[in-house]
């Protein structure tokens, strides 16, 4: 169809151009032939000329129109009735084109439809003014010209084009068919047949080692066959080379696998369960020493290698996996070596094939874990040693605490009794000497406490008793503690506390210990006439609403002391390190205080910081968490030194006659406590060990018992328990006295049945107060 369409349009366009050229020739010939006749006004000959031109092929009509639009001559004499017929009346659709050609003097070609037929209209204006106007009102000859008009029929041309296109298509079809037949014969003879031979040779070459090239024509197909033969030989050589490389790589992989299994001590086993065929890596047999024996061919043969104590566990674990109870078979067991020694292995496997619920194949690995088992055993021994060492350390700390505090109890107790004139009157010099002894003993006790506290923190045995405390009370009591030392050096003390402060969630005793330590250091390193400021600042995160309590409080101790060099600040919080460690150093100390400060604050979830400038002063800060309780109004005044100390309790007459059983094995402590209590009006009876204390509690029925915890024969805790079990002594108040001062000591004593707990060295005033409170509760 495409060929037909192209041929049709091509012929039609060609014929249309021929018609247009014929129309141009007719109008030109008509114009040339009629000029003389028109000039002679020979109308008859003009009409004969027009009619002659109308007889030419494809000519429908021919007209000569005067400049005024009137028809001068027409090929159809019947179309015009007289000479007064205008062209506009005859052909109204062409009147405008005729008028324009007459006026412009330009040849015009129009393609249109007349009486339902496609036509080509050619209008050619005359070159001269040969016409005499028939209408006196017509335009002047100088403005218009006469026009020769020919109308050519295109319908015949289209029929000719269609006929020609059909003829051309038939010619093309016939010639194309012949060409195709010829080309088919050529392709079959020169291409397909040789290619079929080549294909047959290729098919045969799959079963032969050589490509047999058939006989081919000496053309491109023959060249192709030769090329294929060459390619076949190259492919064959490549395959041989590839096979050699693969075999070499396989050998390398097998070698690496063998080396890897030997190094990692991992071997593979494969159990085909239907046939009971058991395949085992030979490496494990060599590892166990069975290299000269045949490999186990069945699973039951392999079970015989497993140590007899582990077989049941092995089979039970395997049974669970085969019944889909575990995703993977995994069992640690021992295998017997050739010499009879059991060695630990780890067997792991997984079912690979199954039909329904029946497993068909189990494949897995076996790994030597003897070194791991040995390491685990060694680790258990090491852990036991660590537990034992930790227990010995705890016992050492407890014993050290007891041995160090026990003599201090006698020293401080005797000193306190002498100062209160329990043993008689003393003069002022003796009082000063006793005060010196008390200060030195208290200092020694403080050092012992610091060392023990550091040891407890390092062992993770220091527990905090946190509660909500008032910040102002904490600060004022701490300032009162160092007030006298500051007055002796004429140091000005100042506190800056906001009016409303939230409570701190801390261990009050430990935080007071930290704050007093920082204040003591400030007094120690501040020259006479200096200044110390205790400042408390709420720390609020950005964009926090003021009415809400701050999450942290910062307590800062600011002094105008000697300051610290920048290179020494990092050493401050390290234990047993002093910045001035020379023999001629000016300031005393062990270097434990700030290390203990840092660790205690960090136990509370806080932080310690310091900024200092040499010769200007220092600022030590600690940040502690707040509670969500309501703010407490601060007091700007801190208590006096007299207020901070406990007054000696005044005993009632009924309490002065009370009988107290003192269970204590240390003679110095017995003399110290008994002398003080007797001076306060109490009656005392004594026990040297726990068994004697139990007997006296039953027989003497004392009003109160002071029970030392560490005693021979029977310790104090067990003695308290047995006293509580006896009906006669079950309700007697008991105060536990211990020099251990270790974590949970108070809880242990109270759990055993004690009513209260005091750690040595015991302050005599505190002891009397506790005794008085318990006796009042008992009465």
From TrEMBL:
Domain PAC as annotated: residue spans: 329-381
All copies of domain Response regulatory, residue ranges: 659-775
Reactions mediated catalytically: ATP + protein L-histidine = ADP + protein N-phospho-L-histidine
Keyword Kinase assigned: yes
Superkingdom in the source lineage: Bacteria
Domain Histidine kinase per the UniProt entry, residue ranges: 399-628
4-aspartylphosphate PTM positions: 708
GO MF: histidine phosphotransfer kinase activity; phosphorelay sensor kinase activity
Enzyme Commission number(s) of this protein: 2.7.13.3
Keyword tags: Kinase, Membrane, Phosphoprotein, Transferase, Transmembrane, Transmembrane helix, Two-component regulatory system
Regions annotated as coiled coil: none
Bilayer-crossing regions: 165-187
Pfam family, one: Response_reg
Enzyme category, top tier: transferase
Protein name: Circadian input-output histidine kinase CikA
Species name: Woronichinia naegeliana WA131
């Amino acid at each position: 169809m495409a060929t037909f369409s192209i041929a049709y349009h091509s012929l039609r366009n060609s014929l249309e151009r021929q018609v247009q050229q014929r129309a141009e020739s007719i109008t030109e010939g008509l114009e040339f032939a009629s000029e003389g006749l028109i000039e002679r006004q020979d109308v008859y000959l003009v009409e004969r000329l027009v009619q002659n031109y109308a007889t030419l092929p494809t000519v429908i009509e021919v007209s000569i129109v005067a400049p005024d639009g009137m028809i001068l001559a027409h090929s159809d004499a019947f179309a015009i009735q007289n000479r007064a017929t205008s062209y506009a009346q005859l052909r109204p659709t062409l009147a405008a084109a005729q008028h324009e050609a007459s006026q412009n003097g330009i040849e015009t070609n129009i393609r249109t439809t007349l009486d339902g037929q496609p036509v080509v209209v050619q209008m050619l204006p005359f070159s001269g003014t040969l016409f005499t106007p028939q209408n006196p009102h017509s335009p002047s000859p100088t403005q218009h010209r006469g026009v020769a008009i020919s109308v050519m029929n295109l319908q015949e041309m289209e029929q000719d084009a269609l006929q020609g296109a059909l003829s051309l298509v038939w010619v093309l079809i016939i010639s194309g068919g012949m060409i195709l037949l010829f080309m088919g014969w050529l392709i079959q003879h020169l291409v397909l047949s040789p290619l079929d031979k080549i294909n047959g040779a290729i098919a045969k070459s799959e079963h032969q080692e050589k490509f047999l090239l058939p006989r081919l024509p000496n053309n491109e197909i023959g060249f192709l066959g030769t090329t294929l033969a060459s390619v076949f030989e190259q492919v064959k050589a490549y395959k041989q080379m590839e096979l050699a490389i693969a075999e070499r790589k396989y050998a390398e992989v097998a070698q690496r696998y063998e080396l890897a299994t030997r190094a990692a001590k991992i071997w593979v086993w494969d159990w085909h369960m239907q046939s009971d065929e058991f395949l085992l890596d030979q490496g494990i047999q060599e590892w166990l020493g069975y290299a000269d024996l045949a490999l186990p061919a069945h699973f039951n043969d392999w079970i015989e290698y497993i140590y007899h104590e582990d077989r049941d566990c092995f089979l039970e674990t395997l049974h669970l996996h085969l019944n889909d109870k575990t995703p993977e078979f995994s069992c640690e067991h021992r295998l017997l070596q050739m010499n009879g020694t059991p060695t630990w292995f780890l067997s792991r496997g997984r079912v690979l094939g199954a039909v329904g619920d029946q497993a068909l194949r189990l494949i897995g690995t076996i790994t030597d874990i003897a070194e791991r088992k040995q390491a685990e055993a060694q680790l258990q021994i090491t852990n036991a040693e660590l537990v034992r060492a930790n227990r010995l350390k705890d016992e050492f700390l407890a014993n050290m605490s007891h041995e160090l505090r026990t003599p201090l109890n006698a020293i401080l107790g005797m000193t306190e009794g002498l100062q209160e004139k329990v043993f008689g009157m003393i003069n002022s010099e003796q009082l000063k000497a006793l005060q010196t002894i008390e200060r030195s003993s208290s200092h020694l006790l403080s050092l012992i406490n610091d060392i023990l506290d550091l040891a407890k923190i390092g062992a993770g045995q220091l527990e905090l008793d946190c509660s909500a405390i008032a910040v102002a009370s904490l600060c004022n009591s701490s300032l009162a503690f160092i007030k006298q030392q500051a007055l002796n050096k004429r140091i000005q003390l100042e506190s800056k506390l906001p009016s409303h402060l939230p409570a701190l969630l801390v261990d009050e005793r430990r935080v007071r210990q930290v704050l007093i330590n920082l204040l003591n250091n400030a007094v120690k390193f501040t020259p006479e006439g200096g200044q110390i400021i205790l400042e408390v600042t709420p720390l609020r995160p950005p964009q926090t609403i003021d009415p809400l309590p701050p999450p942290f409080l910062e307590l800062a101790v600011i002094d105008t002391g000697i300051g610290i060099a920048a290179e020494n600040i990092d050493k401050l919080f390290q234990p047993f390190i002093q910045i001035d460690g020379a023999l001629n150093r000016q300031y005393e100390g062990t270097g434990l205080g700030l290390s203990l400060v840092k660790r205690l604050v960090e136990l509370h979830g806080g932080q310690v910081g310091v900024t200092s400038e040499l010769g200007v002063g220092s600022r030590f800060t600690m940040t502690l968490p707040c509670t969500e309780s309501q703010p407490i109004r601060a007091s700007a005044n801190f208590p006096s030194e007299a207020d901070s100390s406990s007054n000696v309790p005044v005993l009632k007459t009924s309490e002065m006659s009370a009988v107290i059983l003192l269970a204590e094995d240390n003679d110095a402590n017995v003399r110290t406590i008994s002398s003080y209590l007797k001076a306060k009006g109490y009656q005392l009876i004594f026990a040297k060990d726990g068994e004697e204390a139990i007997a006296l509690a039953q027989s003497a029925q004392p009003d109160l018992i002071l029970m030392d915890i560490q005693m021979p024969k029977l310790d104090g805790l067990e003695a308290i328990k047995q006293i509580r079990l006896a009906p006669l002594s079950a309700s007697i108040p008991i105060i536990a006295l211990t020099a251990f001062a270790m974590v949970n000591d108070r809880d242990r004593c109270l759990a055993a049945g004690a009513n209260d707990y005091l750690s040595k060295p015991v302050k005599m005033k505190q002891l009397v107060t506790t005794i008085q409170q318990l006796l009042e509760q008992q009465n």
